Amino acid sequence: MRGRIHSSLRGWSRTLSRTLLSVINEVAEFHIIDKTLCLSYPLVAKTLQEAYAKDKPKNHEHTSPHCCGAMALVNELLGVDLPQSYKKETWQMDENERLNALPRLRLEGNELYQNKKNDEASKIYAQAIGIIEQLQLKEKQGEPEWQALADMKIPFLLNYSQCQLLMGNYYEVIEQCSQVLIQPPNNVKALFRRGMAHLNAWNPNEAKNDFEVCFPYLSYSLNYYPIINYKFYLPSRKQLCKLEEMTREKNKTNKAWLSQQITSLGLSD
């Protein structure tokens, strides 16, 4: 038996923890002396055999009788999980634990994003979004508690959308940013990222609208937050000019194609 010790074998986890001394890759062999320690082994063995022998019929003949009286278990310690290092799954957490996990998930996601691990970061943000949505199910929509959770979800939606934008999942960005813009409708980050997604998905009218909607809010904020000029205002202007140029080129291409089709069909004068 290789790998982590199966908890169904009563007593073996305690024996190994004392014998292997938590040395990774150490191998230990144990001979069966007390048969009462193996009462649960047949069920464990049967499950493992069925998993590894999928092609054999269940009623196949065994070449030798089964007996664990003279059996020796060889175990290799592949890793040790300390109690403090164990991370509960979301379904194992209570309400307070889920709320307390959100700051940690945000930090983990931000660190992965800074290291350009966009796919991994988006999964962390998605996990946080899932936790918040589960908590919202316990609240009545529109109530202060529900709204507080909705506000808490916005940064995770924006970060998730940024990762999806960098990975080229433009329609996912459009969907998530639209969710942010339900309330309030003037979130500059959501408008800009949705505009970028529309631009890359070649939805020119929607992209133009998002970039233009940004400007009143950006212009008002420029005097108070100069960094906005660098992060959003100038990029929005640049993307709007790019969109206009792309539209002109697209129109030229369409006109040339249409003219060619008319000529080939003999419809020209």
UniProtKB/TrEMBL annotation:
Species classification: Eukaryota, Metazoa, Ecdysozoa, Arthropoda, Crustacea
InterPro entries from the UniProt entry: AIP/AIPL1/TTC9, PPIase_dom_sf, TPR-like_helical_dom_sf
Superkingdom classification of source: Eukaryota
UniProt cross-references to SUPFAM superfamilies, sorted A to Z: TPR-like
GO molecular function, one term: peptidyl-prolyl cis-trans isomerase activity
UniProt protein name: Uncharacterized protein
Keywords: Repeat, TPR repeat
